[in-house]
Amino acid sequence: MSQFDNVSVIKKSNLFFDGKCVSHTLLFPDGTKKTVGVIFPSSLTFKTVSPEIMEIHSGSCRVRIGDGQWQNCSAGESFSVPGNSSFDIETNEPLDYVCHFC
Fold this sequence. Notes:
The chain has strands at about 10, 15, 20-25, 35-40, 40-45, 50-60, 60-65, 70-75, 80, 85-90, 95-100.
């Protein structure tokens, strides 16, 4: 899917890690929420509250979920992160993503 239809967009951007990650929140009519954003070249650690699915649209990265093993993830792939957890992500290029909150 290359676009989302019939959504509301929160105009204020979400800035994390001194601007190394920038996203916007999308609100869907059924009450679900997603963010669409970019991670600039960096090594970051995110903490989760609810389960998330990170869908990569362009670029590539290395990801470690919790204390697990590092895995590579590229455009067209996704990874899942449990709630009340964390993930480390490293990228050497801009990474476009959609985060689905479950």
